[in-house]
Amino acid sequence: MQMINVDMKPREALEQFFGFKKFKGEQEAVIQSVLDGKNTFVIMPTGGGKSLCYQLPALMMEGTAIVVSPLIALMKNQVDAMRGFSDVEGIAHFLNSSLTRNEALQVREDITKGRTKILYVAPESLTKKENVEFLRDIKISFFAIDEAHCISEWGHDFRPEYRRLRTIFNEITGVPVIALTATATEKVQEDILKNLDIPNATVYKASFNRPNLNYEIRPKKDVGREIIRFIKQHNGKSGIIYCLSRKKVEEMAQMLNVNGIKALPYHAGMDAGQRASHQDQFLMEDVDVIVATIAFGMGIDKPDVRFVIHHDIPKSLESYYQETGRAGRDGGEGRCVAFYSYKDIEKLEKFLQGKPVAEQEIGRQLLADTVSFAETSMCRRRYLLYYFGEHYPTPNCKECDNCLNPREQFEGKDDLAMVLRAVKESKERHRAKFICDLITGTETSEIKNYKGDKLKVYGEGDEKDLHHWMAIVRQAVVGGYLHKDIETYGNLSLTESGKKFLAKPVSVKFVKERDYSDYEGGGEDEPIARVGAVADERLMQILKDLRKQQGHKLKLQPWVLFQDPALEEMTIRYPITIEELTQISGVGPGKAQKFGKPFIEAIASYVEENEIERAEEVVVRNVVNKSGNKVHIIQNIDKRLPLESIARSRNLSMPDLLTELESIVMSGTKLDINYQLNSMLESDVQEEIIDYFRNSESDEIEAAHKEFDGDYSEIELRMMRIKFMSEVAN
Fold first, then answer.
1. Tens digits of per-residue pLDDT, 358-373?
2. What does pTM read for this prediction?
3. Of 2, 192, 467, 715, which shows the fewest CB atoms inside 10 Å?
């Protein structure tokens, strides 16, 4: 592919270089603006084709376009893509800290010789003196700032080094600037224009509405099971799961794999090679799911991501919008599910402590907006678009969870009037929390300091709780009765509509908000089945009788096959395949294969005879119990390390370590602890204890201790029971 003729029209150039016959949305107008040498500001949602807005003019104009980009991985993807369209190897380059000296020299040579039309640089690289001097001496067509929201402290990904870009541009040359972002509130947009000193820029703002995306918030309960059930319902489809911590990313990826889902982790704690490998496997569809922190996704060009799941609620709606925007970029299905608990918000608030006061205030306001979105019963699409300054024409999108399962409406005339009066009486200089405390008569230091308890409206709405009044405030803001001022971190004031309503209240319908206060969060660690919770007494008896028969046939005590808690869970789940049986707590693949067939046959017959409708329930196989020590323990037992050393390395007491070992073998995994037992007990003693467990009707240690008149300690007997279960049952 030869260089593009500079006299070409944008559409001709588009077809010659990229093979497309037409532009998307306002791409052509944006490109023409850049070609005309105008400062240009582009707000275009993920998947809208922002990159083309600077790539095509870069190819068409004389000189090299300098693109400031925040992520090395993003640069590499963009450069590889550009080179894929051209036979000129040096048509695109990046300049950052990952290059060797020789590679950096090659980049400079290609630019100097006019081969390079587009150069990606990190903001940090742009500040280096030698780079500034080099760029002064070359022909630059324009500067592009990708992910321009990084300039604003109100943006979800603020980078202080972005603040210096205008100064550096002025040092190099006075060429036009194009700034691009996928997500920016009106406040962030103002910040971008101000800090880049391009108030006269031509602004192109595409709609933030992504009609193919479906938004859903779920309470944070049994998260692991809910996620696995969701993914299995979308079998074979690509998805991303976002978690806030690296530890949770690793745990979730491991849990998915144990449950038969091909998944890989991705976070900043991994080395660059491993991150690149995992990203490539996802792009090449060797794995279905990436579990990631927010480090993953920027600029990843995978059009067929079918779902984005937030294990933890993000710290801002900008983050949420950008991350969900990675679903359905091809216009196809895009499911966006987030799990919400206020506990997560409290954790995020703790992260703000110690930061400058202004930064804390901004962070809290962003979190408050996130809470409002999560807890609202309004149309989520309408709320999200309102946040970005866009009006959604109908009250119901018919696709988000709130529209598909609408909450009850109620007459809100009196409540709205009370909220508006409270805002007016308090002189329009307070935020939502103060207004709700004022109405409910809640005594806070802020209420006392501002003499809120002396106002007429104080306590007038105390028959309803803070949650209710916060919902009224939210709906009043979106409904246009109140204005929330960003500059003052959310102070409320009356709009013209609000003043008109207060003068003459009329009927207005509000919806009852969802209440997530019962959900404490972290539910993915809850036990899968409650011990002793027998759902079907008849089936339990059938399974116990069968266990007894099979034990007799195999010359094993019944408890060796499956313990009571496992049978109890079978009466709840009704497993009818070996795979379903392995999802029962305490039943591993080995045990299911060894003893399971007659049990699933009995359950299948029972289900059919009694016309039982089995719930479409996914039972999650946990990687290990709560302590997460399984892999470490198995590896160290394989190395024949003393059990005392293994316990010490994980800060466990010896009894606690044995509990871990019991959990492992009860789930069907073999453990060879003979090396430890042989140093503790003679072989004839071991045979005697094994014979006891083989013939005992109970596996209770207390009964064994009594049988041997206290000759052996509890630890010795527990270790022998582990050996017995491992060798005989597994």
1. 778 888 888 888 888 8
2. 0.61
3. 2
